[in-house]
Design brief:
The complex is a heterotetramer, with two copies of chain A and two copies of chain B.
Chain A lengths: L8 H26 L14 H8 L7 E3 L5 H6 L4 H8 L34 H14 L5 E6 L7 H11 L4 E7 L2 E2 L2 E2 L8 H6 L4 E6 L3 H16 L5 E6 L19 H10 L2 H11 L5 H24 L18
Parallel strand pairs in A: 1-2, 2-3, 3-7, 6-7
Antiparallel strand pairs in A: 4-5
Helix pairs in contact in A: 1-2, 1-10, 1-11, 2-8, 4-11, 5-6
Chain B lengths: L2 E3 H15 L3 E5 L15 H5 L4 E3 L4 H13 L3 E5 L6 H18 L9 E6 L14 H5 L5 E3 L4 H13 L4 E6 L6 E3 L13 E4 L4 E5 L2 H15 L4 E5 L2 E3 L3 H11 L2 E8 L4 H12 L9 E5 L8 H4 L6 H12 L8
Parallel strand pairs in B: 2-3, 2-4, 4-5, 5-7, 6-7, 10-11, 10-13, 13-14
Antiparallel strand pairs in B: 1-8, 6-12, 9-11
The chains are: A alpha/beta, B alpha/beta.
Bound molecules: thiamine diphosphate (2 copies) and magnesium ion (2 copies).
């Protein structure tokens, strides 16, 4: 666990709350699936909360992120409202994308989230392009590109890292290494070393414990500041774990990973528990206070789900709206 | 006859061809132990081993490229592209390389490979996992394109595809993987370029590809109650296209509706309709009606998504109109 | 009026829009000092600097992706894809990302970018540098597609494309880069979705896209000697398509030939012909004739390559036949 | 200059002849362009002869290569006949591809050349797939993938190197670094180090002087033998130079490279001259003998061109032949 990085306990508690919020969101989303109330499938972020929160708490609302198929965590961490998120997951009109995107395309441009992406690696260009725009316009925002370990197999990553490095773009590549690409251990499909792949393009690359939100936040805060000064790009590999299956329907998974491994991560490396224990040991919060935070957020998530369940679907005339934007 | 699912039919086709020909192998993401997310290739790795059932990194352009090179030098790869939408990632290797190598080399190289992928919306998978992109590859000379409409066709066409000496793209309908159909135990092949006439009739021809064959069959049921005599045709392969069977039917009924799940604009319905309009012109009693998917990215919300795909009711209603001599479109 | 080349027209369009709007930038391979292999962007880097005229590595998917992200966050990139054939490399970024972002986000994101590329065979560049792939992108909702047929259209359409808030793909004819046309000094725009009626007539309509407009004009010259009255239409944009102008002409002449340089099978001629056949059915005196490029990869050998593209002679000959009430195809 | 690697002077003279053959071919091809007898454009290999010859002389006829838009050198080096090559360049029926491919698609599968490719990087998958086939079938052949420095910007390279490394495929990636991608110095568009990019995937990578045919041949011989034993893949960067413009029509090139630079390479680093001088100094051949070799090959190339100029074009009915292969 990293040293206390500032004396602002509010910031620690915010990170705690944000992680709990993601977990509560995912618990509800999973339940929606189990209750057959969710259209389609969705990919749970539970277990990886420290990654999104540690990084996004280092960003301002003007900074941008691009997200993945496993995108709820990034969306919450970047400031989204649970109600609008649940509405989107259920295809309702009040969803962030008016129900047109769903879980795999949830975007919240008001908070700088350029969107989840159902093409693995599909947003690497978008993130790098956002950083190019910032540089060209003299804007000071930084863009973080989230993607999984499996996505490092997409050639696009190397193309855009090359350009980001050549042009010193303010982009941070955040590789969420949860060890698996769908139903395959990534070790089996990735040769060499991921950090070396970034370094080969002259990009400074770091590895960090993806369950330690404070360590992540400290590193991210530093790199974001340096990227703003034109010292980017950077690459971070975050070692983490997804608690659920690849998606909510992936129930029997012993053929690709053991129950023991799952239990070990949940018991010994849970990011919420790790930060909670530290908050208590540092006397920033008591167990009871943390319990209240968790309960409040769980209740909030519950209310948000209920709201979304009752919210209305888009009108059928929306089906061919937004194919093209009207140009004035 | 026994009845099996489309997914089992595909599995059998691959297994049978792999037993017959040691140069056939399967390559793609999670095709081995996981048996693909749709559980289609389950069991194959146990029988054929990881050398012939190859799990790849998430590198569609890369493993498609490998397949081209392996095919050029003597193998017969079956490439698994998990969702039809990911075809956009392999277009260069498929269309600039695989499709053209035989021609560019004056017939000296050839690329016998199969790209197995899928199509179909209404699975609540949104715009990047729901597309039906068969029109795109059908436009590229050098590729063959097959569109199985049931377990029976899935097996027979896939076996033919694997034996074909050219690159073939075969589109399975995701929503049909669990649908059963009668499939013979004995080996059979379905030749390319031969449409199936699924029902004979003389007032209107419904042409339905892949998923839309079922929609046409349902429409025919509705219409049979109204004593409208319907002929149903499934082209089975788009390239080569069985123009003769299609034109003969159009000449007989004089009225045709073409139904396809790809976007309508610049899509498959345009090709089939315009061939009929050009070559059966003097036999037509009504304009050929095109019914493709709406020209919108596939929306996630179920209430919207369901609006985008042709339905049996709409097909029946259009058929009713043209048989009655009414207009479908304002002129 | 002054006359300038298509290449100069494109250069002017880019320069004017870059002067007007600082969010416009140009990105691609060798677009800066080299001014592209076709010498189209010569001089721009001197005026706008390397920050706005950006030479990239040979990474088409990569820089297309950058353009999508830049466009989503406030820039208006013009992406130079050196040969239309390389579109196959950017299909995922163009069709899965750029085309769908506005819709998938329920209208919150948008991607105002232009992909400038080219089409056209008979340059002896063989199968991977000669394709005309506009039908493919026209099939994808969310993209607009422009097809300038002379320097005049090239400038007016490109300026409109740059100002459009959606992704636009504009195809220039490589063989026309040095062709001159009258181009006003004063600023003008050509709106999307408005076909040009280049010549009025009442016996047969020739619809020609891009390079094929000229072929139609030459055919009309041949036919005018024979006192056949020809109407010529250039759709100018395929998406949106000016259906009204096309249908009105078809209804007037009753005979239409659609000429396009893309492959015929599942191509642009199918869409235009089938719309006419469907919506002007009762006005047609003859089947709508489609003339696309042959369905073969473009061969290198000049003697073969020249056979693959529609010619004025063939267009004239088909027009003559349908005006005389003869059949073009065996029925 | 590497030490004498075997005592077989025949092999040195063969390499000399092969390099001269490429140079003579290119001189004639350039002249065809200048005389307006060549349809389209073509990319000259002159200056880079040692790369193709050094590598291909380490291969057997069963080994495979994939080539590039700048592919005449590879084609000659892998054993092709000049007549059929010129016929192809002129679109004649007797060409290797019956005139259908032309310079950018010339292939000679009888000698294991799977073809030039007009898509930069387009053959990286093909080469790796050929190596996959060899491994699956237990064939002992090795595949060499030629590509330029500019082509390292294509993401495909990283995708296929990953798989080649994971599966130990018998493929050698040969990067012909001639310093330029069309009209741009590759330094300006390539970040980091090219060898590191291969090494990041766990691939053994070597840099070699691309003008020193013996050094190249020694390295290639070693790596080919190791690849045959299953120790591949390997990566070689060959530092070389193209004497002509990017293509025959690229005449005014001072805006991207200086005349002095061109002269320096031609005068001081010419691969044919370097080997010739060594052959004379080692007394393997006299100046006169080398002159005879050069004259004979120039004469042979001249005859081949004349033959091709008079050869017949394919019959027009060939236009729609070979779109599909008939399956029995
Ligand atoms: C281009 C593409 N190929 C394949 C898929 C199917 N797919 C979805 S998620 C996934 C695994 C991604 O693994 P990783 O990047 O590690 O992310 P994680 O799911 O572990 O968060 C795959 C193969 C896809 N969506 N897009
Ligand atoms: C995908 C693709 N992009 C762009 C081009 C245009 N092009 C042809 S050769 C070339 C430069 C290649 O440089 P390099 O790989 O270093 O090879 P060299 O020409 O130096 O031998 C480019 C950009 C192409 N043919 N294919
Ligand atoms: Mg992962
Ligand atoms: Mg180079």
């Amino acid at each position: 666990m990293a040293k206390k990085i500032n004396t602002n306990s509010e910031s620690y508690l915010k990170m705690y709350s944000q992680m709990v919020k993601i977990r509560s969101f995912e618990d509800q989303a999973n339940q929606l699936y189990l209750d057959a109330k969710m259209p389609g499938l969705t990919h749970m972020y539970s277990g990886e909360e420290a990654v999104a929160v540690g990084i996004c708490e280092a960003l301002t609302v003007k900074d941008k992120i691009t997200s993945t198929h496993r995108g709820h965590g990034h969306c919450v961490a970047k400031g989204a409202e649970l109600k609008q998120m649940f509405c989107e997951l259920l295809g309702k009109e009040e969803g962030y994308c008016r129900g047109k995107g769903g879980s795999m395309h949830i975007a919240d441009q008001s908070n700088g989230n350029l969107g989840a992406n159902a093409i693995v690696g599909g947003s690497m260009g978008i993130a790098t392009g956002s950083a190019l725009r910032a540089k060209l316009n003299g804007d000071s925002d930084v863009t973080v590109c989230f993607f999984g370990d499996g996505a490092t197999a997409q050639g696009l990553l190397y193309e855009v890292m090359n350009m980001a490095a050549l042009w010193n773009l303010p982009v941070i590549y955040a590789c969420e290494n949860n060890g698996y690409s769908e139903y395959t251990a990534t070790d089996e499909i990735a040769a060499g070393d991921i950090l070396d792949r970034a370094r080969a393009f002259g990009i400074e690359a770091h590895k960090v414990d993806g369950q330690d939100v404070l360590a992540i936040n400290k590193l991210a805060t530093d790199l974001v500041a340096r990227a703003r000064k034109g010292e980017g790009p950077f690459f971070i590999e975050l070692i983490t774990y997804r608690y659920h299956g690849h998606h909510v329907g992936d129930i029997n998974r012993t053929y690709y990973r053991s129950k023991e491994e799952e239990e070990d991560w949940k018991k010994n490396k849970d990011p919420i528990k790790i930060l909670g224990d530290w908050l208590v040991s540092e006397k920033i919060a008591s167990d009871d206070e943390l319990q209240i935070i968790r309960d409040d957020i769980a209740a909030e998530a519950h209310v948000a789900v209920q709201y979304a369940l009752e919210a209305s679907y888009p009108n059928s005339n929306e089906v061919d709206m937004h194919v093209y934007m009207e140009t004035n | 006859m026994r009845s099996i699912t489309l997914s089992q039919a595909v599995n059998e086709a691959i297994a049978e061809e792999m037993r017959l020909d040691s140069s056939v192998f399967l390559i793609g993401e999670d095709v081995a132990e996981a048996g693909t997310p749709f559980k289609i290739t389950t069991g194959l790795v146990e029988e054929f081993g990881t050398e012939r059932v190859i799990d790849t990194p998430i590198s569609e352009p890369g493993f498609m490229g490998l397949a081209v090179g392996a095919a050029m030098t003597g193998s017969r790869p079956i490439v698994d592209i998990m969702f039809g939408d990911f075809l956009f990632l392999i277009m260069d290797q498929l269309c600039n390389q695989a499709a053209k190598a035989h021609y560019m080399s004056g017939g000296k190289l050839n690329v016998p490979l199969v790209v197995r992928t899928n199509l179909g919306a209404t699975r609540r998978s949104a715009a990047q996992h729901s597309q039906s992109l068969h029109a795109l590859v059908s436009h590229i000379p050098g590729l063959k394109v097959a569109m199985p409409s049931s377990a029976y066709e899935a097996k027979g066409l896939l076996k033919t595809a694997i034996r074909d000496d050219n690159p073939v793209v075969i589109f399975e309908d995701k929503l049909m993987y669990q649908d059963k159909a009668d499939v013979p135990e004995d080996e059979y092949l379905i030749p390319f370029g031969e449409a199936a006439v699924l029902q004979e009739g003389n007032q209107v021809t419904l042409i339905g590809t892949s998923s839309m064959r079922q929609v046409c069959e349902e429409a025919a049921l509705i219409l049979s109650d109204e004593k409208i005599s319907v002929e149903i045709i499934d082209p089975r392969t788009l390239v080569p296209l069985d123009e003769k069977t299609i034109l003969n039917s159009a000449k007989k009924t004089g009225r045709v509706i073409v139904v396809d799940e790809g976007h309508q604009n610049f899509g498959v319905t345009a090709e089939i309709a315009s061939r009929i309009s050009e070559k059966a012109f003097y036999y037509l009693d009504a304009p050929v009606i095109r019914m493709g998917a709406m020209d919108v990215p596939v929306p996630f919300s179920p209430v919207l998504e369901d609006l985008t795909v042709p339905t049996a009711e709409k097909v029946a209603s259009n058929a009713r109109k043209i048989v009655a001599g009414e207009l479908v479109h304002e002129l």
